[in-house]
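User: Modeling request: complex.
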Amino acid sequence: MTAKKEIELAGDNRLPLYQRLAETLTSDIVDRVWRPGDRLPSEAELAKRYNVAPGTARQAVSLLVEDGLLDRRQGTGTFVRKPTFDTSLFRFFRFQSSDGERLIPESRILRREVIKAPSAVSRALAIEPDSLVISISRLRLMDGVPVMGEEIWLDESRFHSLMDMEDAEIGPLLYPIYDTHFDQVVARAKESLTVDTADDMHARLLDLNKGDPLIVIDRLAVGFDNKPIEWRRSRGRADRFQYHIEIN
Amino acid sequence: MTAKKEIELAGDNRLPLYQRLAETLTSDIVDRVWRPGDRLPSEAELAKRYNVAPGTARQAVSLLVEDGLLDRRQGTGTFVRKPTFDTSLFRFFRFQSSDGERLIPESRILRREVIKAPSAVSRALAIEPDSLVISISRLRLMDGVPVMGEEIWLDESRFHSLMDMEDAEIGPLLYPIYDTHFDQVVARAKESLTVDTADDMHARLLDLNKGDPLIVIDRLAVGFDNKPIEWRRSRGRADRFQYHIEIN
DNA sequence: GAGTGGTCTAGACCACATC
DNA sequence: ATGTGGTCTAGACCACTCG
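Assistant: Request completed. Predicted assembly structure:
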């Protein structure tokens, strides 16, 4: 017997090999053994390392590519995908900047405080009722015109020091902050769209009349392990809203 | 040399085999060689017939399963999927019938006529400007309550005899009619969602006040070959609207 | 040129559904 | 019991990217 170089696969050993390998790779990504942007070992290398056939390693990688975790580039390698969220919120709003460019709206933080989690929030974030959460209110503007109001909730115990940061330090994008300062990578999100009408406060905020239609977007952002990271509710002017779907 | 039983594959011969086989299978489905509900030959059989390795046939089938054209059932076979449109329009509206059951709303045809295609319609249906189209107005009701108004446009030359049918004969679902009477199978659809406010007519129709928010859903229904079959614009009460998305 | 993923072959055995 | 898809092996050669 020669010494074994193979590594044990995670998961129930009644599961198919390629699924167990996929699980193993996933937890390596969650645990940041491989970080977004990193190149994975080649498929052949993975196969050797985990003692499976190349085709099986390939199948495992394919699973994660489908899930959007990995990114294959022919001739170059397979990479851990950086969660870009190109596909996000602002996909819904066609801001004047017509030429299809992805513009990041200006961001103005209105309020930031630690409160006891409202029940809807603790449920969404899967934390104990009445735990402390950080609550942030932001106004989003395009070319100085207010287009959306956001309320954001975070588990205070994981994002404690966010309260100490300056508004300027935070900037217009929160997810990179979660990543760099709190080691929380948003991998996926679930959104729910509804229509509501503007109350006094949002009418004033978004330069509308009371009763004008608003698009309400609830979003739960989760990590690679599907654990909740952030919950937010955004309200935008419905007249700027457009959304496309393909049905199969 | 023995006689060849193999069948020629469609498509550019510089393309991968599995893609050409997928194309071949797709056109057989479009041409109704295999109809929705039919079982395809087994993967091994396909491989023999088209003279490719089993794995390659499998890859081709996988493509079409991903596209939603085929449906694999372990131990049973691979079937041509019936376009059910579970995933459709009424997914957006949560009708009272809370228990998640898929209810088909009642349907009342308000108007049916042949007109010259408005330019937006001829463009959507990819037909000549000013061609004749059938225009249908319908009201959709749940438990007697109006929830949505629909305007539907069809190429008159392909749906001519629809004008001779009785309202009752048409019933609440149009796509089965397109299938059975006109050999037009709706395979996919693209929808676009926007928010508008109710004009007098829709306020009356949907029991709203003028200016109340409406969800406007534009839908282009296409066949397996991606050619337009029907275009419709639906307007529904925004307060019944809810939509969920996963972002990766 | 070396290394990567992309395609393809030609089998094997297993799990499952149906008769 | 038979036939189906599901998994897996162990290769081959090609197309692409990069240094």
